Amino acid sequence: MSLFVRTGRLSLARQQILRAAAPASAPSGGGDQRLEIIRRVLFEQPAKEMPKLEGEALQQHETIERAWKLHQNQERESRNRSLERKFRKMEAAMNELEKTNDRLFKAAIVKSRHITFPRELKMPTETPSPQGWNHEYKPPVDATAPKSS
Amino acid sequence: MLGKGALLSRSFATAIPSRAPLVNNNFRIVSGVVLSRTPQITRDSTPFEKAYFDYSEKLERQTAAPLASDFYFKKGSLAERRWKEDEEARKRAMADPNLSLTDAVKEVQSIQQDEESVTPLSNKFETGSRLTEADKKNDIKSLDRALQRTLYLIVKKPRDQHSWQFPQGAVEDGEYLHDAAERELAEECGKNMDVWFVGRQPVGHYTYKFPEDHVKKNPGANGAKVFFMKAHVFAGQCKPDNKEVVDFAWVTKDELPQYVSPEYFDAVKDILSDL
Lengths: 149, 275
Description:
By secondary structure, chain A is mainly α. Helix content of chain A is 56%, strand content 0%. In chain A, 5% of the residues are buried.
């Protein structure tokens, strides 16, 4: 049992499935070819051979990877700084509101237990809608309750 | 006005709030709206990012298994022929250090598109262009402009100094900040926008003093404290009421200093998104 685990690229379970699925006779026509193709696509895992980099090529690769990680770090830091600035602004505003008006402050603190976000708040896509922005939007006539969280 | 409110509160069970604006320490409490149109498309890659993507693509191709084309394509079909042409282009690009895989495939696909008119492929779909007409014309009022950036609504008041600002209006007695913000936005900018307010907390504040001639004309407050509420717009367009507000524009954070005063921008810039 341990031999299979060490040598095979395929796991033990997969090897058993492959053996069970293989026909006793040799493939003999269009139908069997399709089965072979499907079996190959499902079960074979060709070994991934990383090209061995040496010397200058290795240095180049490592420099590129380091530059990318540095770029990612810089992006992340700038995003975090921007968020921190936004948070501090919000904190300062709430502190100011507390000093200014007690009733408004107490109302601002209230948070609904069932906060929902609108479906229209979607992620950016690679290309925009071919119709573009709907500048001619008219609110539905019977909408009495505004969208609020 | 106050008498009427008091009279009505005696006859009805609930008190109807008076329309008097809230004032604290001689500062009028004002609710402002930072209405944003979020980015509609992903941002462009920087040249370094594009170079890294091309490098990673080639490295990935060296270690990846070849596609089982006999599984995915019907033998002798047009799609299989197209894919074989793409693969040939990719193989040539692997040897060429200056050509990326995606660029090589794009070249081949442009040739394939010329042949499209003769033998069209069944599933074709139209995508919008990342650079819109509004971008080319630099139409400040359009919401199709600067799709990669966040656009913010600013409105123009009919005065000379400090005319451009975010929509704002005084909070009335009995009202809350978010109620006042929704009401003021509907009054000043029309109801033809699909707007969602992001909760009850203000995202920033700005305190300023009124100019002296304004205080003489409208006694009751020496200045105003504006609490900004955040909102998103999903559809529609602003329609100024031509009384309090005469003009509007949708601008990015970078373009905002061209319109608003330096003190206002300093107070507001950390609320806004860079992208």
